[in-house]
Design a protein that fits this description.
heterodimer, A: mainly alpha, about 70% helix, B: alpha+beta, Phosphorylase Kinase, domain 1, Aminoglycoside 3'-phosphotransferase, Chain: A, domain 2, about 40% helix
Protein backbone atom coordinates (compact mmCIF):
# COMPACT_ATOMS: atom_id res chain seq x y z
CA UNK A 1 0.00 0.00 0.00
CA UNK A 2 1.28 3.48 -0.78
CA UNK A 3 0.91 6.14 1.93
CA UNK A 4 -2.75 7.08 2.47
CA UNK A 5 -4.08 10.17 0.74
CA UNK A 6 -4.87 12.90 1.67
CA UNK A 7 -1.62 13.04 3.63
CA UNK A 8 -1.54 13.46 7.40
CA UNK A 9 -0.49 17.14 7.12
CA UNK A 10 -3.37 17.76 4.70
CA UNK A 11 -5.84 16.24 7.20
CA UNK A 12 -4.44 18.42 9.96
CA UNK A 13 -4.63 21.51 7.74
CA UNK A 14 -8.35 20.89 7.21
CA UNK A 15 -8.96 20.26 10.92
CA UNK A 16 -7.01 23.38 11.93
CA UNK A 17 -8.82 25.46 9.33
CA UNK A 18 -12.24 24.40 10.67
CA UNK A 19 -11.32 25.03 14.31
CA UNK A 20 -9.63 28.35 13.67
CA UNK A 21 -11.90 29.94 11.06
CA UNK A 22 -15.31 28.46 11.88
CA UNK A 23 -15.48 27.22 15.48
CA UNK A 24 -13.18 29.64 17.32
CA UNK A 25 -15.09 32.84 16.41
CA UNK A 26 -18.27 31.36 17.94
CA UNK A 27 -16.64 30.64 21.31
CA UNK A 28 -15.89 32.72 24.39
CA UNK A 29 -14.13 32.36 27.72
CA UNK A 30 -12.85 28.96 28.78
CA UNK A 31 -13.76 27.14 25.57
CA UNK A 32 -12.27 29.81 23.34
CA UNK A 33 -8.94 29.46 25.13
CA UNK A 34 -9.03 25.65 25.06
CA UNK A 35 -9.88 25.73 21.33
CA UNK A 36 -6.97 28.09 20.68
CA UNK A 37 -4.66 25.67 22.54
CA UNK A 38 -6.06 22.76 20.52
CA UNK A 39 -5.26 24.57 17.26
CA UNK A 40 -1.69 25.12 18.50
CA UNK A 41 -1.31 21.46 19.44
CA UNK A 42 -2.47 20.30 16.00
CA UNK A 43 -0.08 22.76 14.33
CA UNK A 44 2.76 21.31 16.43
CA UNK A 45 1.90 17.79 15.29
CA UNK A 46 1.81 19.01 11.69
CA UNK A 47 5.24 20.63 11.95
CA UNK A 48 6.62 17.56 13.68
CA UNK A 49 5.45 15.33 10.81
CA UNK A 50 7.30 17.52 8.32
CA UNK A 51 10.46 18.39 10.26
CA UNK A 52 11.21 15.64 12.78
CA UNK A 53 12.79 12.93 10.55
CA UNK A 54 15.62 15.13 9.26
CA UNK A 55 16.12 16.69 12.71
CA UNK A 56 16.43 13.26 14.36
CA UNK A 57 19.11 12.16 11.87
CA UNK A 58 21.13 15.34 12.43
CA UNK A 59 20.79 15.09 16.21
CA UNK A 60 21.90 11.44 16.18
CA UNK A 61 24.99 12.38 14.16
CA UNK A 62 25.91 15.11 16.67
CA UNK A 63 25.41 12.72 19.61
CA UNK A 64 27.61 10.06 17.98
CA UNK A 65 30.32 12.67 17.56
CA UNK A 66 30.00 13.94 21.17
CA UNK A 67 29.90 10.50 22.78
CA UNK A 68 32.30 8.75 20.44
CA UNK A 69 30.21 5.68 19.65
CA UNK A 70 27.19 4.76 17.48
CA UNK A 71 23.66 4.17 18.74
CA UNK A 72 20.01 5.19 18.51
CA UNK A 73 19.09 8.84 19.03
CA UNK A 74 17.03 8.44 22.22
CA UNK A 75 19.53 6.10 23.91
CA UNK A 76 22.42 8.40 23.03
CA UNK A 77 20.56 11.41 24.39
CA UNK A 78 19.83 9.57 27.65
CA UNK A 79 23.51 8.65 27.91
CA UNK A 80 24.55 12.26 27.33
CA UNK A 81 22.17 13.40 30.09
CA UNK A 82 23.67 10.83 32.48
CA UNK A 83 27.23 11.82 31.61
CA UNK A 84 26.51 15.53 32.09
CA UNK A 85 24.95 14.70 35.47
CA UNK A 86 28.01 12.63 36.41
CA UNK A 87 30.23 15.64 35.73
CA UNK A 88 31.98 14.15 32.68
CA UNK A 89 31.49 17.33 30.64
CA UNK A 90 32.58 20.83 31.62
CA UNK A 91 29.65 23.27 31.88
CA UNK A 92 31.32 25.48 29.27
CA UNK A 93 32.29 22.68 26.82
CA UNK A 94 31.79 24.44 23.46
CA UNK A 95 30.82 21.29 21.50
CA UNK A 96 28.29 20.34 24.19
CA UNK A 97 26.78 23.83 24.33
CA UNK A 98 26.56 23.95 20.53
CA UNK A 99 24.78 20.58 20.44
CA UNK A 100 22.30 21.62 23.17
CA UNK A 101 21.57 24.92 21.46
CA UNK A 102 20.97 23.32 18.06
CA UNK A 103 18.75 20.61 19.56
CA UNK A 104 16.65 23.19 21.42
CA UNK A 105 16.36 25.44 18.37
CA UNK A 106 15.24 22.51 16.21
CA UNK A 107 12.64 21.43 18.78
CA UNK A 108 11.39 25.04 18.89
CA UNK A 109 10.92 25.01 15.10
CA UNK A 110 8.26 22.38 15.86
CA UNK A 111 6.91 23.45 19.24
CA UNK A 112 7.04 27.25 19.12
CA UNK A 113 8.75 28.81 16.04
CA UNK A 114 7.86 32.31 17.28
CA UNK A 115 10.23 31.88 20.25
CA UNK A 116 13.19 31.89 17.85
CA UNK A 117 11.66 34.18 15.24
CA UNK A 118 11.21 31.31 12.76
CA UNK A 119 8.26 31.01 10.36
CA UNK A 120 5.28 29.02 11.67
CA UNK A 121 4.75 27.21 8.37
CA UNK A 122 7.67 24.81 7.85
CA UNK A 123 7.11 24.79 4.08
CA UNK A 124 8.45 28.34 4.06
CA UNK A 125 12.03 27.45 4.89
CA UNK B 1 -29.55 18.83 36.24
CA UNK B 2 -26.36 19.74 34.34
CA UNK B 3 -22.90 19.59 35.89
CA UNK B 4 -22.90 23.40 35.93
CA UNK B 5 -26.28 23.58 37.75
CA UNK B 6 -25.17 21.05 40.36
CA UNK B 7 -21.99 23.05 40.92
CA UNK B 8 -23.97 26.29 41.26
CA UNK B 9 -26.27 24.71 43.88
CA UNK B 10 -23.32 23.54 45.97
CA UNK B 11 -21.76 26.98 45.73
CA UNK B 12 -25.02 28.66 46.82
CA UNK B 13 -25.19 26.35 49.83
CA UNK B 14 -21.60 27.27 50.70
CA UNK B 15 -22.30 31.00 50.38
CA UNK B 16 -25.38 30.68 52.65
CA UNK B 17 -23.43 28.67 55.23
CA UNK B 18 -20.38 30.94 55.36
CA UNK B 19 -21.68 34.42 54.43
CA UNK B 20 -25.46 34.36 54.96
CA UNK B 21 -28.83 34.27 53.17
CA UNK B 22 -30.16 34.36 50.56
CA UNK B 23 -26.83 33.24 49.06
CA UNK B 24 -27.98 33.41 45.49
CA UNK B 25 -25.12 32.94 42.98
CA UNK B 26 -25.26 34.92 39.74
CA UNK B 27 -23.09 35.19 36.64
CA UNK B 28 -21.08 32.05 37.47
CA UNK B 29 -18.34 31.78 34.83
CA UNK B 30 -15.36 29.47 34.69
CA UNK B 31 -12.30 31.62 34.02
CA UNK B 32 -9.57 29.02 33.83
CA UNK B 33 -9.47 25.34 34.37
CA UNK B 34 -6.44 23.17 34.31
CA UNK B 35 -5.54 19.69 35.33
CA UNK B 36 -5.46 20.73 38.96
CA UNK B 37 -7.04 24.04 39.95
CA UNK B 38 -10.09 25.79 38.52
CA UNK B 39 -10.94 29.49 38.88
CA UNK B 40 -14.53 30.76 38.78
CA UNK B 41 -15.98 34.26 38.85
CA UNK B 42 -19.43 34.89 40.35
CA UNK B 43 -21.61 37.39 42.21
CA UNK B 44 -23.19 36.37 45.52
CA UNK B 45 -26.30 37.98 47.01
CA UNK B 46 -25.85 38.28 50.77
CA UNK B 47 -28.45 40.30 52.64
CA UNK B 48 -29.11 43.23 50.34
CA UNK B 49 -25.57 43.36 48.96
CA UNK B 50 -24.19 41.79 45.79
CA UNK B 51 -20.59 40.70 46.34
CA UNK B 52 -18.20 40.24 43.40
CA UNK B 53 -16.22 37.08 44.22
CA UNK B 54 -13.65 34.60 42.90
CA UNK B 55 -13.57 30.90 43.71
CA UNK B 56 -10.32 28.98 43.37
CA UNK B 57 -10.72 25.29 43.99
CA UNK B 58 -9.06 21.95 43.51
CA UNK B 59 -12.09 19.72 42.82
CA UNK B 60 -12.70 16.79 45.24
CA UNK B 61 -11.81 14.20 42.59
CA UNK B 62 -8.41 15.86 42.12
CA UNK B 63 -7.40 16.05 45.76
CA UNK B 64 -4.50 13.81 46.59
CA UNK B 65 -3.65 13.14 42.96
CA UNK B 66 -1.51 16.20 42.56
CA UNK B 67 2.17 16.09 43.40
CA UNK B 68 3.11 19.44 44.83
CA UNK B 69 -0.16 20.11 46.63
CA UNK B 70 0.13 19.16 50.27
CA UNK B 71 3.86 18.61 50.05
CA UNK B 72 4.66 21.97 48.48
CA UNK B 73 1.46 23.91 47.82
CA UNK B 74 -0.72 25.49 50.48
CA UNK B 75 -4.28 24.51 51.29
CA UNK B 76 -7.20 26.86 51.82
CA UNK B 77 -6.84 27.70 55.54
CA UNK B 78 -3.11 28.33 55.16
CA UNK B 79 -3.69 30.41 52.06
CA UNK B 80 -6.17 32.56 54.04
CA UNK B 81 -3.75 33.07 56.94
CA UNK B 82 -0.95 34.03 54.56
CA UNK B 83 -3.12 36.51 52.64
CA UNK B 84 -4.16 38.18 55.92
CA UNK B 85 -0.52 38.43 57.02
CA UNK B 86 0.36 39.89 53.61
CA UNK B 87 -2.39 42.51 53.86
CA UNK B 88 -1.16 43.40 57.34
CA UNK B 89 2.29 44.05 55.83
CA UNK B 90 0.77 46.39 53.26
CA UNK B 91 0.77 43.98 50.32
CA UNK B 92 -2.18 44.33 47.93
CA UNK B 93 -3.50 40.78 48.37
CA UNK B 94 -7.11 39.66 47.99
CA UNK B 95 -9.38 39.51 51.05
CA UNK B 96 -10.51 35.94 51.78
CA UNK B 97 -14.28 35.56 52.29
CA UNK B 98 -14.65 31.75 52.51
CA UNK B 99 -12.30 28.87 53.23
CA UNK B 100 -13.95 25.77 51.76
CA UNK B 101 -14.52 22.91 54.19
CA UNK B 102 -15.60 19.28 53.83
CA UNK B 103 -19.32 20.15 54.24
CA UNK B 104 -19.13 22.34 51.12
CA UNK B 105 -18.20 19.30 48.96
CA UNK B 106 -16.39 21.62 46.55
CA UNK B 107 -12.90 20.29 47.19
CA UNK B 108 -10.21 22.50 48.60
CA UNK B 109 -9.81 26.22 48.10
CA UNK B 110 -10.97 29.71 48.93
CA UNK B 111 -13.44 32.36 47.89
CA UNK B 112 -11.92 35.82 47.73
CA UNK B 113 -13.12 39.27 46.79
CA UNK B 114 -12.94 39.96 43.04
CA UNK B 115 -10.77 42.89 42.07
CA UNK B 116 -11.30 44.55 38.71
CA UNK B 117 -8.38 44.56 36.31
CA UNK B 118 -6.35 42.52 33.86
CA UNK B 119 -4.20 39.48 34.61
CA UNK B 120 -3.21 38.39 31.11
CA UNK B 121 0.45 39.32 30.63
CA UNK B 122 0.23 39.87 26.90
CA UNK B 123 -2.65 42.34 27.27
CA UNK B 124 -0.91 44.20 30.09
CA UNK B 125 2.16 44.56 27.86
CA UNK B 126 0.41 45.65 24.68
CA UNK B 127 -3.00 47.28 25.26
CA UNK B 128 -3.29 51.05 25.05
CA UNK B 129 -5.34 51.29 28.28
CA UNK B 130 -2.23 50.25 30.25
CA UNK B 131 0.17 52.60 28.40
CA UNK B 132 0.37 55.09 31.29
CA UNK B 133 0.70 52.36 33.94
CA UNK B 134 3.34 50.24 32.17
CA UNK B 135 6.40 52.42 32.94
CA UNK B 136 5.40 52.38 36.65
CA UNK B 137 4.93 48.62 36.99
CA UNK B 138 8.55 47.55 37.62
CA UNK B 139 8.95 50.07 40.46
CA UNK B 140 5.55 49.09 41.92
CA UNK B 141 6.65 45.45 41.83
CA UNK B 142 9.84 46.45 43.67
CA UNK B 143 8.01 48.13 46.54
CA UNK B 144 5.40 45.34 46.74
CA UNK B 145 8.16 42.73 46.90
CA UNK B 146 9.86 44.64 49.71
CA UNK B 147 6.52 44.53 51.58
CA UNK B 148 6.11 40.78 50.91
CA UNK B 149 9.59 40.16 52.28
CA UNK B 150 8.58 42.03 55.48
CA UNK B 151 5.59 39.74 56.19
CA UNK B 152 5.62 38.66 59.85
CA UNK B 153 6.07 34.86 59.78
CA UNK B 154 4.49 34.47 63.25
CA UNK B 155 1.67 31.94 62.92
CA UNK B 156 2.78 30.96 59.41
CA UNK B 157 4.62 27.83 60.57
CA UNK B 158 3.18 25.91 57.61
CA UNK B 159 5.56 27.80 55.31
CA UNK B 160 8.48 25.45 54.68
CA UNK B 161 12.13 26.52 54.66
CA UNK B 162 13.37 26.43 51.08
CA UNK B 163 16.80 28.06 50.79
CA UNK B 164 18.44 27.62 47.38
CA UNK B 165 19.90 24.14 48.12
CA UNK B 166 16.44 22.92 49.21
CA UNK B 167 14.88 24.37 46.05
CA UNK B 168 17.51 22.58 43.98
CA UNK B 169 16.80 19.31 45.79
CA UNK B 170 13.04 19.73 45.14
CA UNK B 171 13.54 20.21 41.42
CA UNK B 172 16.15 17.42 41.25
CA UNK B 173 13.49 15.14 42.77
CA UNK B 174 10.88 16.38 40.30
CA UNK B 175 13.24 15.74 37.38
CA UNK B 176 13.94 12.20 38.56
CA UNK B 177 10.23 11.53 39.14
CA UNK B 178 9.50 12.53 35.52
CA UNK B 179 12.05 9.92 34.35
CA UNK B 180 12.66 11.78 31.09
CA UNK B 181 16.31 12.81 31.38
CA UNK B 182 17.25 15.66 29.04
CA UNK B 183 20.84 16.83 28.52
CA UNK B 184 19.90 20.52 28.74
CA UNK B 185 18.04 19.98 32.04
CA UNK B 186 21.00 18.07 33.48
CA UNK B 187 23.35 20.86 32.44
CA UNK B 188 21.01 23.35 34.10
CA UNK B 189 20.74 21.47 37.39
CA UNK B 190 24.52 21.11 37.53
CA UNK B 191 25.03 24.79 36.78
CA UNK B 192 22.63 25.69 39.61
CA UNK B 193 24.44 23.33 42.01
CA UNK B 194 27.77 24.96 41.16
CA UNK B 195 26.50 28.54 41.46
CA UNK B 196 24.44 28.45 44.67
CA UNK B 197 24.58 31.96 46.17
CA UNK B 198 24.57 32.93 49.81
CA UNK B 199 21.20 34.42 50.70
CA UNK B 200 21.28 37.92 52.29
CA UNK B 201 18.55 36.75 54.70
CA UNK B 202 15.65 34.32 55.02
CA UNK B 203 12.13 35.70 54.84
CA UNK B 204 8.65 35.01 53.48
CA UNK B 205 8.93 34.59 49.70
CA UNK B 206 5.93 34.63 47.33
CA UNK B 207 7.43 31.99 45.05
CA UNK B 208 5.38 32.78 41.93
CA UNK B 209 5.55 36.59 41.71
CA UNK B 210 5.35 37.37 37.99
CA UNK B 211 3.42 39.02 35.21
CA UNK B 212 0.28 36.87 34.89
CA UNK B 213 -0.20 36.61 38.65
CA UNK B 214 -0.81 40.35 39.11
CA UNK B 215 -4.09 42.19 38.66
CA UNK B 216 -3.24 45.38 36.78
CA UNK B 217 -5.47 48.37 36.15
CA UNK B 218 -4.86 51.67 34.38
CA UNK B 219 -3.39 52.84 37.70
CA UNK B 220 -0.91 49.93 37.96
CA UNK B 221 -0.70 46.83 40.17
CA UNK B 222 -3.90 46.34 42.18
CA UNK B 223 -3.45 42.85 43.58
CA UNK B 224 -0.96 39.98 43.92
CA UNK B 225 -2.45 36.51 43.26
CA UNK B 226 -1.46 32.84 43.39
CA UNK B 227 0.38 32.45 46.69
CA UNK B 228 0.46 28.67 46.74
CA UNK B 229 4.24 28.38 46.21
CA UNK B 230 4.99 30.69 49.14
CA UNK B 231 7.71 29.54 51.52
CA UNK B 232 10.56 30.90 53.65
CA UNK B 233 13.70 31.41 51.64
CA UNK B 234 15.98 33.73 49.67
CA UNK B 235 14.14 36.98 48.83
CA UNK B 236 16.12 37.37 45.59
CA UNK B 237 14.17 34.38 44.22
CA UNK B 238 11.12 36.62 43.73
CA UNK B 239 13.09 39.31 41.85
CA UNK B 240 14.74 36.77 39.54
CA UNK B 241 11.52 34.87 38.78
CA UNK B 242 9.82 38.12 37.72
CA UNK B 243 12.55 38.56 35.07
CA UNK B 244 12.31 35.04 33.53
CA UNK B 245 11.70 35.54 29.80
CA UNK B 246 8.58 33.34 29.78
CA UNK B 247 6.83 35.91 32.00
CA UNK B 248 7.65 38.75 29.60
CA UNK B 249 4.86 37.54 27.28
CA UNK B 250 6.65 38.85 24.23
CA UNK B 251 7.27 42.26 25.82
CA UNK B 252 10.63 43.87 25.03
CA UNK B 253 11.79 44.69 28.58
CA UNK B 254 13.34 42.29 31.11
CA UNK B 255 11.03 42.83 34.10
CA UNK B 256 7.75 41.10 33.18
CA UNK B 257 8.13 42.43 29.62
CA UNK B 258 7.11 45.87 30.91
CA UNK B 259 10.02 47.33 32.87
CA UNK B 260 13.71 47.83 33.54
CA UNK B 261 15.73 45.91 36.13
CA UNK B 262 17.08 49.19 37.52
CA UNK B 263 13.56 50.46 38.30
CA UNK B 264 12.73 47.18 40.07
CA UNK B 265 15.95 47.07 42.09
CA UNK B 266 15.97 50.76 43.10
CA UNK B 267 12.31 50.68 44.19
CA UNK B 268 12.97 47.50 46.20
CA UNK B 269 15.90 49.15 47.96
CA UNK B 270 13.99 52.43 48.53
CA UNK B 271 11.12 50.47 50.09
CA UNK B 272 13.52 48.88 52.59
CA UNK B 273 14.02 45.50 50.96
CA UNK B 274 17.80 45.71 51.32
CA UNK B 275 20.51 46.12 48.72
CA UNK B 276 20.17 44.13 45.49
CA UNK B 277 23.08 42.31 43.87
CA UNK B 278 22.15 41.96 40.16
CA UNK B 279 24.30 38.81 39.77
CA UNK B 280 22.41 37.20 42.64
CA UNK B 281 19.08 38.02 40.97
CA UNK B 282 20.47 36.66 37.70
CA UNK B 283 21.20 33.33 39.41
CA UNK B 284 17.51 33.04 40.36
CA UNK B 285 16.45 34.06 36.84
CA UNK B 286 18.63 31.26 35.39
CA UNK B 287 17.44 28.76 38.01
CA UNK B 288 13.90 30.00 37.28
CA UNK B 289 14.31 28.91 33.64
CA UNK B 290 15.22 25.39 34.80
CA UNK B 291 12.37 25.34 37.32
CA UNK B 292 9.85 26.39 34.66
CA UNK B 293 11.26 23.79 32.24
CA UNK B 294 10.69 21.08 34.85
CA UNK B 295 7.21 22.38 35.62
CA UNK B 296 6.44 22.13 31.89
CA UNK B 297 7.81 18.59 31.77
CA UNK B 298 5.83 17.57 34.84
CA UNK B 299 2.59 19.14 33.62
CA UNK B 300 2.98 17.66 30.17
CA UNK B 301 3.68 14.16 31.38
CA UNK B 302 0.60 14.36 33.60
CA UNK B 303 -0.05 13.29 37.16
CA UNK B 304 2.48 10.66 38.01
CA UNK B 305 0.65 7.48 38.84
CA UNK B 306 -2.58 8.78 37.30
CA UNK B 307 -5.31 6.27 36.48
CA UNK B 308 -4.70 4.75 33.03
CA UNK B 309 -7.20 6.12 30.54
CA UNK B 310 -7.80 9.25 32.65
CA UNK B 311 -8.69 12.30 30.57
CA UNK B 312 -5.80 14.63 29.81
CA UNK B 313 -6.46 18.36 29.67
CA UNK B 314 -5.25 19.87 26.38
CA UNK B 315 -3.84 22.96 28.10
CA UNK B 316 -1.74 20.76 30.40
CA UNK B 317 -0.34 18.52 27.68
CA UNK B 318 0.43 21.58 25.55
CA UNK B 319 2.52 23.05 28.38
CA UNK B 320 4.72 19.95 28.10
CA UNK B 321 5.76 21.19 24.65
CA UNK B 322 6.95 24.53 26.06
CA UNK B 323 9.98 22.98 27.75
CA UNK B 324 12.54 24.12 25.17
CA UNK B 325 11.66 27.82 25.57
CA UNK B 326 13.17 28.29 29.06
CA UNK B 327 16.00 25.84 28.32
CA UNK B 328 17.15 27.98 25.40
CA UNK B 329 16.71 31.11 27.53
CA UNK B 330 18.88 29.45 30.19
CA UNK B 331 21.67 28.75 27.68
CA UNK B 332 21.48 32.38 26.54
CA UNK B 333 21.76 33.56 30.16
CA UNK B 334 24.79 31.45 31.11
CA UNK B 335 26.61 32.19 27.84
CA UNK B 336 26.02 35.93 28.06
CA UNK B 337 23.62 36.09 25.07
CA UNK B 338 20.49 36.83 27.09
CA UNK B 339 19.02 40.16 28.14
Amino acid sequence: MPASKPSAPALLDAAIDYLERELLPTLGGYHRFQCRVTVNVLAQVRRELVLAPAQADAERARLVSLLGHPGERDELSRELAARIRAGEFALDDPALLEHLRRSLVEALRINNPKWIGAPEDPENF
Amino acid sequence: MTEHDAFQHKLEAAVRRHLGAPGEVRALVRLTGGATKATWSFDAVVGTATLPLILQQTPPERLGSTPGRGAVGLHGAHDAALLEAARAAGVPAPRVRIVLDADDDLGEGTVTERITGETLGRKINTEARFAAARPQLAAQCGSILAAIHRIDPTGLDFLTEQPAPAQLAMYRTLADACDHPLPAVELGLRWVAEHLPKAPRTCVVHGDFRNGNLIVGDDGVRCVLDWELAHRGDPMLDLGWLCVKTWRFGGPLPVGGFGHRDDLFRAYERAGGGSVDPAHVRFWEAFGCIKWALMCMHKGLGDLGAVPGARRNVEAVAIGRRIEEPLLDFLDLITGKGD
